[in-house]
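Quick sanity check, UDP-N-acetylmuramoylalanine--D-glutamate ligase:
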Amino acid sequence: MKRLTEFPYSNIVVLGLARSGTAAAEALLANDKTIRVHDKQATEQDETVIRLKEMGAEVIIGSHPISILDGMDLVIKNPGISYDNPIVAEAIRRDIPIITEIELAYYLFDGPIIGVTGSNGKTTTTTLVTDMLKKSERPVRVAGNIGIVATEAVQSMQDDEALVLELSSFQLQGTEKFRPTTAILLNIFEAHLDYHKTLSNYKQAKFNIFRNQTKDDYLIYNAEDKAIAEEVKDARAKLIPFSVHQKLEAGAWIDDKYVYFKNEKIIELKEIVLVGEHNLQNILAAIAAAKLNGATNEGIYRVLTTFSGVEHRLQFVENINGRLFYNDSKATNILATQKALDSFKQPTILLAGGLDRGNEFTDLKPHLKHVRAMVVFGQTASKLKELAAEVGIEKVIESENVEDAVHAAYSISEENEVILLSPACASWDQYRTFEERGDMFVQAVHKLM
């Protein structure tokens, strides 16, 4: 069990149980901290509530009593809880620090940390880095916004292991001292403004990934993202750029035939299984991080010649009578769908729609040239139908849900076409998560067989 020897707080409120809150509460209790746990949805009968009480926590469920902050010197909140939450807002008024459990995990682990963030591509890049290190026989664990909770993972890690963390803006906003030895900043565009309120707030949360780095650390960044390239000029870490359009002898890049890290050939482009220019960006970032943390060229090669994508991220599902089905349910915003569409040249049937956050879809227009038909669903169905009419897509079907959309798309499809689920919207109008939406798509495709 790792000890919180340098953690400067003793009386702590944990807001929200779920997995991250539970892991944080257990770690704090194991380190003799005084904690109060609050979760509006929990009940007295929940196993987690019973266990935490037995361990010595004060657990408050149901209402939002502001008095939960009395005598406390820190709040650890679930990343999904907004800063408008009454308890969080009051903590800010009282100048009580607010962090997420990523900060706590940092205090519990002394080994190398590879942090990955960006508006898109986090999960793919995190998975690539982890697999490249594993195939190179480098001890490594993966946690954060993917897989296991970071605070839980570090409890059983050795200091010679590398920890790869997928990090959301929600998690990074709640950090103070967090310092990855290798940071990856993939891209930034307008997203999650319902949470962060302004684009500036969102960017600053993302930039927290390198704020505390030193000259001994590495910052891998997208040289083609102007906002990032400008911001990293003030970084103290060693800068490692990547680009798919320019030669970068200090970083990762490609020419018309090969992938390079600095001036070393890594792999021939035609041998890479993963499709899409945006995935080439993810690959370059992953190669840089892997090489800087002990990966071998052989290990990297083994991953890139076999890895075809993670679930719900431009995941190839099946070839049915010459129709290629791809599940990109993770595309919860317009940029992600742009990149998915640009990954294909052949005629495509696009399945899109979901939660209406007030967005218009005008930015999709230049990317719809090879889209022959659309099947739309959810709250944004009417907006997407209007978009199709504006760009001259004549075949548009409105479906009840993703499952019906699969059957509708197949019924109008032709051989050698792509049927792509890339919703450009969050799933919460019909599905609890984008994973659930993607699973429904995959199941519907398999039923066609």
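Posting the structure with no commentary besides this: The first helix runs from residue 18 to 30.
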